[in-house]
Structure formats: structure tokens, C-alpha cells
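Tutorial, part two.
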Amino acid sequence: MRSFIATNALRTQGGFGLGLLSLSRRCSSTFQQAIAASLPRTTWTRDEISDIYNQPLMELASAAGSVHRRFHKPSAVQLCTLMNIKTGGCTEDCSYCAQSSRYSTGLEATKLSTVNSVLEAAKIAKENGSNRFCMGAAWRDMKGRKRGIKNIVEMIKGVRAMGMEACVTLGMLDKDQARQLKEAGLTAYNHNLDTSREHYSNIITTRSYDERLQTLENVREAGIHVCSGGILGLGEVPQTDHAGLIHTLATLPEHPESFPVNKLVPIKGTPMFGQEPVKLEDIVRCIATARLVMPATIIRLAAGRVTMPESEQMLCFMAGANAIFTGEKMLTTDCNGWDEDKVMFDRWGLEPLQTDASRITVEPSTTHHDHIVPEEYHDKKSGEQLQSYG
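Running the prediction step on this input gives:
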């Protein structure tokens, strides 16, 4: 692309030619470096990520698709199922969440599900092709929940015994709690940052951004995969806040194993109800940028996918997304069903991504996915989540 632009710039007279030459110089730096990457890097600056995010959309999506094919099998998409194992009654004030006790959403709080009921749901998910089973509980943190964590440990062990990845999202964790989950065999822990640091206080006041980052550090140090992403459509400015969210995650000591991209599902009774929907182009930009700066990370279409036509979902896959939530429900909101997704997979030539579910991270720098990663990478490397956000 660089040579094409430069050649045509030299052939063109006047300001238009100078404009193309300027574009060539700009693209030949950060953007081209991202396109040419053979290894993930954690030294991105905010300006570099903003520069990538604001590239012409066709160029951005195409470049992301190219990088995706270098690090992953392009037709492979991971199927994940998310179950709400403890509904409602949360004391947090997350302004998008149906499960907050501060808002009148008509949701009835429940106790923690039994181990047997969760494992039965996991069995059904596996029979329908899901590779990862995720369990979410509407808690601020795990303090004083010894019985709860004991039952969750049994859930994790049961899911892993089925040959599936196990992921949980339980709010804030301390180091000892993370260690217990690691010993149970937990594959990944989901704790989203939701949005950029700058916009965060407009969405949540009961937990700080740094508290969320501390949980991610505790999870990573325990040797559990980090699953962390955001929710698009929270009244943010996409050009700055999406870039800010990606920058925070892309400059952690190592990139998250997975990056969920949620589209806000407005719930009546929450402050976010009536919020203008995020635009498709902003979703694609976010996915494509994340793919370019975190090339080995799994990018997951999460909440809100049910509102996206199949053609929009395919644009996201082509721009670098390679995982979805599928099944009966996404915590408290609707989800695309297994049968519907099987039809989509057949129509577009997609196949379920089969990861090595019997292994989890021992060292934070180790990855265990069967996607295609350059050989030099192998050599070199030898938020509390509520409502429906995974």
C-alpha cells in the first residue's frame, strides 16, 4: 500500500498529489508498523493507537484482516456460552446494568445457582458446540463469600472435566482468591474496564478504574488468562474513548487473552436507557484497531450481537473478531441461539475454534490457542461484569 500511494503521489500534480504524499508518510509509520508486526508489543502510545483508529475505514479494516490471518485461522470463530449463576442485588451503580439494586428494572435478585444446575447447563452448551463456558455473578467483590467461592470452584472443576474452557466474572478479586481459582483450573477471568479512564467516572462511581486494573493484575499474577474489554455506546466519544480503552489494555505487561466488544443493550430503568446506539462503523473501527495493536488476542463479539444483522457481524469477523457468545441467554438479555449461529457458520464457511481446553496459563507470557501465530512469536514467547457483558 505504501508503494502504491507513493507512486501515485509522484504522478499527480498540485495539492492532491501533495496530500497523497503526506498520507503516505503518515501511513508508513505507525500504521505500517502495525500491519507488518510479527510479534505483539506492549509499548504503544496513546497517539499511535489514535492514529491507527482514525485511518480511513476501508484501509483500517483491510489491514486488520491481513494481520488477523497472520496470527489466527480466519475461518475459526470460538463459541462461548455465558450463564448468570447469581442474578441481581448488586450494590454497584454501573449505569448500564439491570442487576444494580439502585435501579428499578424489574429484575428479581436470586441466590447462587447450585453446582449441578450450572454443570447441566454447561453440558448442554458443550453439546451445542460451545468451547468456553462462562459464569457470571452479580457481586461487587468476593469478600466474605467462602461458601460461594467453594461452590464456584466445584463448578470450574466440573466444566473443565467436560473438556471446556471455564471463565468466571465475579467482581473484584484479591490475590488469594485468584490463587484459589487458578488451583481449581480456571481458564480465564473476565473483568472489563468498560470504557476509557477519562470517561469511566461518567458511568460508574462505586469502583475506581485502578481497582479494576488491580483485579486484572491479581488474575494475571495467578497465571489465569485475562479477559477484559469494553462496552460501546455509553455516551463516549469513539475517537478518543475507544482508543483510550484499547491503549490501557494494550500496554498492560501482556495483552489480554481475550477482548470482549459489547454493544450497549439499553435497559429500561437504568441511566443508559434511551442512549443513542453506537454506530456500526465505530464498532468495526474498535475491533480493527484492537486487532492491529493486540494481534494474538481473541476478540469476542459479546452483548448486543443479537441486534446486529448477519451482514454486520460478518464485517466484524472480517475486521478481526474471532469469538462470539451463543446460547439461550446472555445473563439477563437475549442472545443469538446455537441453531441460528450454526446456520450462519454454514452460510459463510466458518468453523468453531477449538482451543486446547485442557491447559491453562502457567506463565503469564504463555498462550495456548490453536490459532496461527508466526514461528518467531512461539520462539520469543517459549469489572465485575453485570447484565449481559462478557
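Residues 1-36 form one domain. In part three we will examine how such features are distributed along the chain.
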